[in-house]
Design a protein that fits this description.
By secondary structure, the chain is mainly α. It contains five helices and no strands.
Length: 124
């Protein structure tokens, strides 16, 4: 009976060690993934500042491969698209809008989002 208890205890200790090792490895992978995503996003923003849209798009596509749901990467992709096609970012003017503005019934403009991202926004 003592031998069985010792064997069961040893098996439990080994299992706990394996679980702890896998958990630590997974956490490290997540941290590496976040760091890689941040680097891609920052590289894309630098390329965008230099108006190098091709490189900016490649960097942001790599970030989205790492984390397809990353909000900062999606936002940066939208910024790249708008920078490439500035005509698409301007609101369309139609006769109804022109008439409303002439009657001093202009609609309030939405505030532009901040260009600075916090460290948390860049995480994956």
């Amino acid at each position: 009976m003592g031998k069985i208890t010792s064997i069961i205890g040893l098996v439990l200790i080994v299992a706990a060690g394996i679980v702890a090792s896998v958990s630590t490895s997974y956490q490290k992978q997540l941290e590496n993934k976040k760091e890689l995503c941040k680097k891609y996003i920052n590289s894309a923003k630098e390329a965008l500042k230099k108006q190098n849209y091709g490189d900016a798009k490649k960097f942001i596509q790599n970030a989205l491969k790492v984390d397809p749901q990353n909000k900062a990467a999606i936002k940066t992709l939208m910024e790249i698209s708008l920078a490439q096609n500035p005509a698409n970012s301007a609101p369309a003017q139609n006769s109804a809008q022109t008439q409303n503005s002439s009657n001093n019934q202009a609609k309030p403009q939405q505030a532009a989002p901040s260009s600075e991202e916090s460290e948390d926004d860049l995480g994956c």
